[in-house]
Write a structure and sequence with these properties.
With 341 residues, the protein is of the alpha+beta class. The protein contains eleven helices and 17 strands. Strand 11 and strand 12 form a beta hairpin. The longest helix has 15 residues. It binds pyridoxal-5'-phosphate. Pyridoxal-5'-phosphate binds next to helix 9.
């Protein structure tokens, strides 16, 4: 039955065409486009040219995926002519937590890694939204007596209009035939490179079947999260999200919306186990995370969520989130780190 849904999505999808929503437009990532604009990568304390930042093919990170990373966004504010990194400290803290789980000691302090991130963003000189990727990994070569723990930071521009399309129209998801990695097998709550094999096989399967994205259940059959984002649903005007023991990544956006956003907007929240069928009967649902920001889910397994369009609470959360990241909510300016002096 589950495979039928994945294999024959047309039978299950409602009619509204969302063609073109499935993947971000990667045309601009061609050599002549965005890639050509990315000039510098920070590596182990040095700013290197893009081409110079390399690892050996026999290294543990290449062969066994021994690495941890962060995904951070920086938002360009036209009014202030400034690039703001969102919740830099919290992301760097999670990078260190992920490294700790991996028994990798980072040879830089948190402050030095924060500075490296700001410097890399500034040195590349972008005046547009960025995705920032710090990565800590076991480099070196095969069977070295002591593998070096390398640290790099690179940045990639992420055009806003493309992202806005997804956020305005919403995405159609399916429940993945793959389960979310359980904490008894992989450290699900942190950002281990290897965890993303689980995410990628689920999203590739969903996209091939004609959906925009996948939602994972836990081994116990409860809703966990999206393949690269946390999930919220709305039932009777209460925001509900699976708890941190549901094998989720402990998302910074989730925490921002749950602990602060909802409170400021006067919306009740509840962190608890969520059943699959609750998604089908939810009034609204959305994905949230650095990558997805606040992306409405308009259907699951072809069943429309609510009216099959973007719900009012989701819209309020989106609005609040963008006001915060663009520096329009004065009380949250301490979440934003300016890149340019
Ligand atoms: C698997 C997964 N879950 C959730 C999230 C959301 O986390 P954050 O809000 O910290 O980006 C991400 C990253 O975007 C992720 O990769």
């Amino acid at each position: 039955m589950l495979y039928d849904k994945i294999a024959n999505p047309k039978t299950y999808l409602h009619s509204r065409s969302l063609a073109g929503l499935r993947r971000p437009n990667v045309r601009e990532n061609s050599r002549s486009g965005v890639l050509a604009k990315m000039k510098y990568i920070w590596m182990n304390g040095k700013m290197l040219r893009w081409k110079e930042a390399t690892v050996h093919v026999s290294s543990p990170v290449v062969n066994s995926g021994m690495g941890v990373f962060e995904g951070i966004r920086a938002y360009w504010s036209k009014e202030r002519s400034q690039l703001y990194i969102f919740r830099l400290k919290e992301h760097v803290q999670r990078l260190f937590d992920s490294s700790k789980v991996h028994r990798m000691k980072i040879k830089f302090s948190k402050k030095q890694v924060e500075d490296a991130i700001v410097q890399t963003a500034a040195r590349n000189g972008f005046r547009e939204d960025l995705y920032i990727r710090p990565l800590v990994f076991r480099g070196g070569i095969w069977r070295m007596p002591e593998t070096p723990i390398d640290v790099i930071v690179f940045v990639v521009p992420t055009p806003r209009p493309e992202r806005m399309k997804r956020m305005k129209r919403g995405v159609r998801c399916c429940i993945s035939s793959w389960r979310r990695i359980p904490d008894i097998a992989m450290p699900a709550r942190v950002k281990t490179c290897g965890n993303y094999v689980n995410s990628r096989i689920a999203s590739m399967e969903a996209e091939e079947a004609g959906y925009d994205g996948a939602i994972f259940l836990t081994i116990d059959g409860k809703v966990s999260e999206g393949s690269g984002a946390n999930i919220f649903l709305v039932r009777k005007r209460t925001l509900i999200t699976p708890g941190v023991t549901s094998d989720i990544l402990e998302g910074i956006t989730r925490e921002t919306l749950l602990s602060v956003g909802a409170r400021e907007l006067g919306i009740d929240v509840c962190e608890r186990d969520v059943d699959r069928t609750e998604l089908y009967v939810a009034d609204e649902a959305f994905l949230c995370g650095t990558g997805q920001e606040v992306t409405p889910i308009v259907s699951v397994d072809g069943i429309p969520i609510g009216k099959g369009s973007v719900g009012s609470i989701t819209k309020k959360m989106q609005k609040w989130f963008f006001e915060v990241v663009e520096g329009k909510r004065a009380k949250h300016m301490d979440w934003l780190t300016p890149v340019y002096a």
